[in-house]
Amino acid sequence: MNTIKTKYQSVLKVFLMLVLLSPLKVLAQQEPLYTQYMFNAMSVNPAITGVDETLNMTLLSRLQWAGMDGAPETYSFAAQTPFTNLDMGIGLSLVADNVGPVKNYYFNFNYAYRLQVTNTMKLSFGIKAGIYNYYVGLDGLLLDGASNDPSFQGQIERKMQPNVGAGVYLYDDKFYAGFSVPRMIANRLDNSEMESGGNVFAQVSQHYYIMAGYTFDIDKQWKLRPSFINKMVSGAPPSTDLAVQGIYKDTYWLGASYRFGDAVAILANMKINSELFIGYSYDFTLSELSTFNKGSHEIVISYSYSGLLDKLGRTKPIR
Questions:
Q1: What's the fold here for domain 2-311?
Q2: Which of 35, 107, 192, 214 is the most buried (most CB within 10 A)?
């Protein structure tokens, strides 16, 4: 079994190398993947910035396909705060997303402006601007016997590109729905066109997200919250997550999610106190990769502080 696994990992590395070196336009899901997207939603929709009416900081760590060499690893930090008297929110995010020899780093600044559309519902418009740093090196593709081969050493490509994004978000205390394009600029990552038909080496493409959810009151202690998120990018099939979470006393969350054709996950979250929130999810891989990995782990830690905003005289939040 170990021999088969090692052979598969070697084949995977060679495949990655061929893709990275081939004169083709590389199109795939290029934004980081999150199972607990509902607790890290600002990363994909800037219109969500500041809607929770607290100064919030969130850390998230995701280890995908544990046990497989070169598997994706994502680490993110986000901070946001509302300015209620000005009907706006600001935030920033830092993300490191690594897949084998490919290392992506994102820095974004978010701004959102909110309109009251009914007594309880608001509509938020958001924009983001930042920098995307793309790095590919062959050091992570060293195979048996290749450690002394100069062609497997050093950097292939390093690029720093601008990025802008936008989104809208409609919400009240039970319902939310949003649409966003967190990456609006289709940046080329190669320095020159290849000779084969003028195709580009690789390109970062626009991504489109649709999300929605609703919270049902079961009784005074229990709530049920179904939600979904759909991700679309040119050249790749849509990726859809469906999730259902039970909430007990607004303190404990337990749920499950299904990513079509890819994974089933369990989610467990807890509010430690009025400021600290933690969560964990585990993905069971359903694809052919299930034989070669031990699932995916994701941890989220969120800290919210409302004291400063209370001192500034914020209004009562609707969410």
A1: Porin (2.40.160)
A2: 35
